[in-house]
Design brief:
The chain is mostly helical. It has 18 helices and 6 strands. The protein has a two-stranded antiparallel ribbon. The chain is elongated. The two termini are 42 Å apart.
Length: 455
């Protein structure tokens, strides 16, 4: 598992002791269900509940799968089977009642049902972190609802937006990812206790139903020796796409922190160093980390999908893969969400720089507004487009050659438009001045906030 990039609460879910404790709870519920059906003596079920316990290190020792020591003399006689080793570790604490533990069931009746419980437990923590990020974005969106900036397409200045609008876009995407993840939780919330090939040959279907009810799971409508892995693939896919959204948000901050743009910046703490060589450096390191980790998350989705194709009623090819990708994916997305939430809460917004960049092209972003006014006044659209573009390109050339003073920058483009012989047939100077009221671009910002339920 990924140790460095983990928080204790999430990591603890996937520790060996947690896994074995969850297996034991499933075993005990099965024994108690059998007791309710009159198969297992009730006093035996009660003794199992009272006496059964498991020590993870003892179970691992009995399994004998210590890396590098497979041929060690001490490994002779070990089970080389995790569930059997677990059972033997539990048996050491039991008397005659032990014969009723694991009655009528197979390993993956226990392991698959327990895995679902661990995934759901992790999922609840992940949902909490998604909601924390949602709240952080909402607060910054309220703060910067009217923080004007230039919108960009292809990395090039387009038309004005607000930083709050940008955050609303993130919020809508995050909420779609949450909804998808909730659906994936539902997909994996299944209980499978139906025996060696899923036919209930030696286990009463009512046992599965009773255990499922206790665990707030749904009995699988039909299974083999395992739950089918499309469920797990859906879960990992939801996490990978969520990571992709976090990468999208992080990439935006990284771009906006570029020195030549510098409209947004990650917080930089006292004593923090940006470079071993250059003392001036302040880098978007957390956003870069999130972007990199999203690549790793996507890599987990591929083997999850490949795990769907199992031989007949089950092979074991999926098992070793899942022991890595499922814990790591949960740990990793938990880390990514927590870290990016701190970025959102702490990021610095440079409003003056946003306005400076907004004005940098002398109002070229008003070109569409001028064209549409001309069309409303009766001008052919293609002719209007060509005329406005001609004036815009002439202005752009002047700007790139640094031939306009600060005073000229704000007036050169509108004056060219007013002097254009085609446009002047349809537009007055007042029409063009009115089209240059760039704040009119943002008259509908409230719509996004209302749709997202932001007060």
């Amino acid at each position: 598992m990924i140790e460095r990039y983990s928080y204790p609460e999430m990591r603890a879910i996937w520790e060996a002791q947690s896994r074995y404790d969850t297996w034991l709870e499933v075993e005990l519920l099965i024994a108690e269900a059998w007791a309710e059906l009159g198969v297992v003596p009730k006093d035996a079920a009660e003794k199992l509940r009272k006496n059964a316990k498991v020590d993870a290190q003892r179970a691992i020792e009995l399994e004998g799968e210590t890396p590098g020591k497979e041929n060690d003399q001490k490994s002779k006689g070990k089970t080389r089977h995790d569930l059997i080793a677990f059972l033997h570790a539990v048996y050491e604490h039991l008397g005659e009642e032990k014969k009723w533990l694991h009655y009528g069931v197979t390993s993956y009746d226990i392991e698959d049902t327990a895995l679902v419980l661990l995934m759901r437990k992790s999922a609840m923590m992940i949902l909490t972190e998604i909601d924390a990020l949602d709240a952080a974005i909402v607060e910054r969106a309220k703060e910067h609802k009217w923080t004007y900036m230039i919108g960009r397409s292809h990395g090039v200045h387009a038309e004005p937006i607000t930083f709050g609008h940008k955050l609303c876009v993130w919020l809508g995407e995050l909420r779609r990812r949450r909804a998808m993840f909730v659906r994936a939780i539902d997909a994996i919330s299944a209980c499978k206790i139906s025996g060696a090939v899923g036919t209930f040959a030696n286990v009463d279907p009512r046992v599965e139903e009773m255990v499922a009810e206790k665990l707030q799971l749904e009995p699988s409508p039909c299974a083999t020796q395992v739950l089918q892995r499309d469920r797990h693939a859906e879960f990992l896919s939801a996490l990978a796409i969520l990571a992709g959204s976090l990468e999208q948000f992080s990439t935006e901050i990284r771009n906006l922190q570029r020195t030549d743009i510098l409209e947004v910046e990650e917080s930089f703490q006292a004593g923090q160093r940006g470079s071993s060589a250059m003392p001036h450096k302040r880098n978007p390191i957390v956003c870069e980390r999130v972007s990199g980790m999203a690549r790793l998350m996507r890599s987990y989705m591929i083997p999850a999908i490949e795990n769907m194709a199992l031989w007949h009623e089950r092979d074991i090819a999926h098992s070793s893969v899942e022991r890595v990708i499922i814990p790591d994916a949960c740990i990793l997305i938990d880390y990514m969400l927590k870290k990016f939430t701190t970025v959102v809460k702490g990021m610095k917004i440079y409003e003056k720089r946003m306005l400076k960049n907004l004005y940098a092209t002398g109002g070229l972003f008003n070109s569409e507004a001028v064209m549409l006014v001309a069309v409303k006044k009766g001008m052919d659209k293609d002719t209007a487009y060509t005329s406005v573009q001609r004036c815009a390109m002439a202005t752009w050339d002047k700007i790139q050659q640094d031939e306009l003073s600060a005073d000229q920058l704000g007036t050169f483009y509108p004056e060219l438009l007013k002097a254009d012989e085609n446009l002047s047939k349809y537009l007055t100077s007042e029409d063009i001045d009115h089209a240059f009221n760039w704040q009119s671009h943002l008259k509908n910002i409230d719509v996004f906030y209302k749709r997202l339920g932001i007060d």
